[in-house]
Amino acid sequence: MAGRGNSHRGDNGWGEWGGYMAAKKRKLEEQFDKDSSNNAKQLERKSNIFQGISIFVDGHTEPPADELKKLMMEHGGVYHAYYSKDKITYFISNNLPYAKIRKLKPNDKVINSKWITDCIKENKLLSTHNYEMYKDMTRSRGQTELNFKRAEPMKPITSDFNVPNSDDEDDHSSASETEEAPTEDDDHQSALDAKHPKFLETFLKRSRLHYLSSTAVAKKVYVQELRQKPEHRQLIEKRREELKNTIQRTERDYLFKIHDEKKEKIYMHIDMDCFFVSVATRHQPELRDQPIAITHSKGRKAATTSEHQFYSRSELASCNYAARQYGIKNGMYLGRAQELCRNHQAKLLCLPYDYEGFHEVSDRFYDTVLSYTLEVEAVSCDELYVDLTDLLIYLKPLHPLTFVALLREEIQINTKCPCSAGLGSNMLLARLATRQAKPNGQYYVEKGYEQEFIAKQKLIDLPGIGSSILDKLQQTFPQTTVDTCKQVQNLCSLEQLKNILGKKQGQTMYDMTHGIDTRILTKDYLPKSISIDINYGIRFQTFDDLTVFIKQLVLELHKRLKQARQKGKQLSVKIRVRAPDAPIEPEKFMGCGRTDDSSRLVNLHSYTDDPVNIELETIKLLKQMNFIVADLRGIGISMTQFQSALKNTSGKDMNGHRTLFDCNQFRVPKPSSTTVENQADTGEPSESSVTRKRPMQQEPTTTAVPQKVSRLDCYTPGQIDPHVMNELPEPIRQEVEQYLKNPPSVLRQNSESDRVEVVEKSFTQVMDHLDEAVLNELPPEMRREITMAQKLRKMESKYPPIGGKRLIPISVPLNPVIQEKSNAFNVLMNSPQKQPTTTTKKTSIPVKRWRTETILNEEPMTTTTTSNVRTESKPQSFQQQPSIAGFTSLSDVKLMLREWIESSDEPNQIDFDLFQNYLIDLLNSYNAEMVHQLLSYGLLQLKPLTSKSQWIKHFQSLIEAVQTRFRQMYGGATMDLS
Ligand code: DCP
C-alpha cells in the first residue's frame, strides 16, 4: 500500500483525504456530482424538490437503489453511496437486518423509500413522519438495545387462550430502554420475527396474557377433575371434621342462624391482593410498605432523569396498595406511575415477573380452598367463587365470617400472600363485597342489608360495565350525574333501561343495580373456542417459512386443547394481510399495521386434537386463501365445537343440557361378546367415561363400532358413579352409602357369571329404596334420571327377556311397508351387534333404489354371519353399519331420539351435528328408508310440543342438510316427509 502513496498525501498516501475510505467516498461523491451534471444534460431536471437533501440507501428498496439514485438526480437531491452521519439527511431502507437496527442511534431516521416516490408524485417535499421506520425503537432512549423478551401483550383477557394482538403489546420504546440490561441469550435476541425457531417459545414464555389465560383454563380443569376423585372427597370430610371440632366459637357464631331447610345461599368471592406484587415480595414482606409495581422495565431511567419527555410506556401488570394510594393503577404506563410517585416524593420499586412463583402461589391458594369444599367456580389464577351454603350448614353454629377469617389465615400461611373475601346471598354481592374488603380484609353483605349495600355501589365497579355503557346512560340524563346504583334505581325503570341500553344490557343493568343475580356456580368448563393468534413478528418470505411456523403454532394449539381436555370439530384460520396502501413496515416495530383480514373454516370429519391432522387442514385452508406470503402480518388458528374429555357434574353436556347420549345411560346392553369388545378397542380414552358424552368416533381410521354403555359403566350400587354420589345431598348420600354398606346378600356374590344380574337387581333395589320424599329432595335433573330409570325398570319387568332379548312394544305407528316388523317388537337394551347370531341377515349389498332397500330389522346390516365368522372377519361388516351412541337398530335410535327430544327445550348443537352426520352416513350406506323413518319420527315427536321451537328450527336445518345429500345421491329427488 505504501507504494501507492505520494508525498503530498502524507504517510499513508491518503492523509489529506482522511484515509482510504474517506478518499473513496469523496471519489464517489465527485462521481455522483459529475454524473448529476452529465445526466442533468441527458436526464431532464424535473424539479428541485429534494434540493439540500441527501440520502443513503441500504438493503432492498422499492424502487431499487439505482432507480432512487436517478430520481434524486432528477429532482435536485444527492445520493450517497456510503453512509456518513454528517452528510446524510435521510437513511433510506425498507427492511433493515436486525443487527443494523440494533445499531441505530436515537436520532437516526430510517425512511421508507416510498417517501421519495410519494414526494415526486405530490411534487413537494412531504413530511417523513409517516414514512419513518423503527421509530419506536430509536426514540426515547440513549442507545438501542432491542430486547424481544420484553414484548408483552397487555390486553385484558377476554377469552380462553387468545394471544393478544401485537397492537396491544408493550411498546417497544420501553422494551428497549437502556437501563434494562438484556438478560436473554443471543438466541432470544435474534428471535425477532416468526422465522426464528424460538420465536413462538420466547413470545409465549414472556407473555403474561398467556400465563393468565392458560392458568385460568388449568384451574377450571383442575377443579372439575378433582370432583371426580373420591379420595379428595374423603380429604374434605376429614378437614371439615377437624375444623368443626377445633373452631373456637364465640357468641356471634351461636347467634348466627342459617336456614338449612330453605337452603338460602351464601356465596364467597375470594381474590388474592395485588397478586403479582404479593408473590414477588412473598419472601420480603418488609418491602410491601413502599410502592411496588411489576413491570418488564426496571424503571431506573425515568426515576433518575430530570427530563420527563420520554415516559416509559412499559405497562404495570400489577401494583400494590402502597402505590395505589398515589393514584397508581394496574395497567398504567410506568412513566406516569413514576411521575405520580415523584409528586409524593416517593420512589416506585419495579420488580420483575416471577412466573414460577405465580404458579406455586396460585396452586397453594386453590388447594387450601379446595380442601374444604368442591363447590367452587374457578375464575383465574388468583380468584374464585365458593358456594358456602352446605359447608356452613355442616359447621354450624358458625358465623360465615368466622370461617372466612380462618380460611384466609390458612391461605396467608400457605402462600405468604394476603387475600380478601366478600360474602353475600348471590355471586354479584359477594364480588362487590370483596372490593369493599380489599386489601387483606373480608366483608359480608348480610341478609336484609343487600339494598343498602347495592345502592351505594359505583356503576363503574359493577362487573362488565364499561365506559361506553355509562356514557349512554349519562347522555340520557345530561342534567345529573349518574354514577351509583342508587341513581339508576331512582332514574330508570326496567323499560327505560331496556330502551337506553337494549333489551339484554338493560335487563342486566337493572338486575345489577338492584343487587339481583340468579347465577349459580358454573362448575363445568366449556370453552367456546381454543385458539392461538399471533399478530406480531410475522414476516415470511416463502410459503415454506410459513409452514414451518404453522407447525409450531399447531403444536401450541394442540397443547392447549390437551390442557383443556377438548377435541374440536371445527377449525378456522384467520389471516391479517398488509393492506395494499399500507407501508411495508408499520410504525409499530414488527407489528401488523393496517391489514385486510380474512378467515376460512372447515368442519372436520371427527373431533380431534391431533396436530398432524390440524396442521394438514390449516395448510389446506391457507392454500385456499389468496395472499402474498411476504405481506402476511398476523395469523390465528382456532378450534371450536368441542367434545370434552372432562366429566361433567350432572350427566349434562357441557352446556348444561342433557346430551343425546345421556339419554341412554340407563339402558342395559347385554354383556358384550369379546369379539366386539376387541373391535371397539380403538385406543380412545376408556369408553366408560366417554360414551355417555360422545361415543361416536367418525374418524375413518377408527373402527365404526363404538363400545356400548354397559350397566357397569352406569350407576350401580357397587360402583355408583362417584360423580352422581357427590351431587347427592348429604342425607341422601348417607342413606345410599348406608344401603351399599349393607347390601342384600345377593350383592355379596361376586361370581363373574352372576355379576351383571346381581348388579342389575341391586340397582333396582336401590332405586326402589329411594322413597318419594327422598326423591323430591334431589335436584330436578337427577330426579328425572332416577324416575326414568325406574320407568325403564318397570318396562323391563313387564316385558321379561325372551330368548335372550328383552322386548318391549313400541307404540309409534310405522309406515305400512314396515309395520309388520316394527309392530312385532323392537329390541331395547340389547346391542344387536353384540348378539351372537346364527340367523341369516339382510344382505349388505347396497341397492340404490332406497324405497326397496328397507333395513328395519333389529340387527345391523351385515353379511351372513355366525358369531364365529364374525370373530374371524370381524371389523368389516360392523364398520359399514353407521351407528350413533353405539346404537344401530331403528328402534334403539328412535327411543334415543325420543328421550333426547324430551330431555330439554334447547338442543345441543354438537348433538345435532352428530345426529346429522349419522343420518348422512346412513344415506351413504344406502339406508335412506331408515333416514326417512327417523326424520318422520322426529317430526312426529316435535309437532305437538309448543315449547320446542328451538328444536324445530334445528331439526329443519338438519332436514335440509339431509335432503341436500339425498338429492346428490338420487338424481335431484327429494325425500317426501309430508
Ligand atoms: N394481570 C395482568 N394484566 C391484566 C390483568 C391482570 O397482568 N390485564 C395480572 C396482574 C395481577 C393479576 O393478574 O396481579 C391478578 O389480577 P387482579 O385483577 O386480581 O389484580 P391484582 O391482584 O393485581 O389486584 P387486586 O388486589 O385489585 O385484585
TrEMBL record:
Coiled coil location: none
Keyword Glycosyltransferase recorded: no
EC number: 2.7.7.-
Domain BRCT: 45-133
One Gene Ontology cellular component annotation held by this UniProt entry: nucleus
Residue ranges constituting the UmuC domain according to the UniProt record: 267-466
Required cofactor(s): Mg(2+)
Single Gene Ontology BP annotation: error-free translesion synthesis
Bias (Polar residues): 671-689, 867-881
Compartments (UniProt record): Nucleus
Biased composition (Acidic residues): 166-187
Annotated SMART domains: BRCT
Cited InterPro entries: BRCT_dom, BRCT_dom_sf, DNA/RNA_pol_sf, DNA_pol_Y-fam_lit_finger_sf, DNA_pol_Y-fam_little_finger, HUWE1/Rev1_UBM, IMS_HHH_1, REV1
GO molecular function, a single term: deoxycytidyl transferase activity
Stated family: Belongs to the DNA polymerase type-Y family.
The protein's role, per its UniProt record: Deoxycytidyl transferase involved in DNA repair. Transfers a dCMP residue from dCTP to the 3'-end of a DNA primer in a template-dependent reaction. May assist in the first step in the bypass of abasic lesions by the insertion of a nucleotide opposite the lesion. Required for normal induction of mutations by physical and chemical agents.
Protein name, as recorded: DNA repair protein REV1
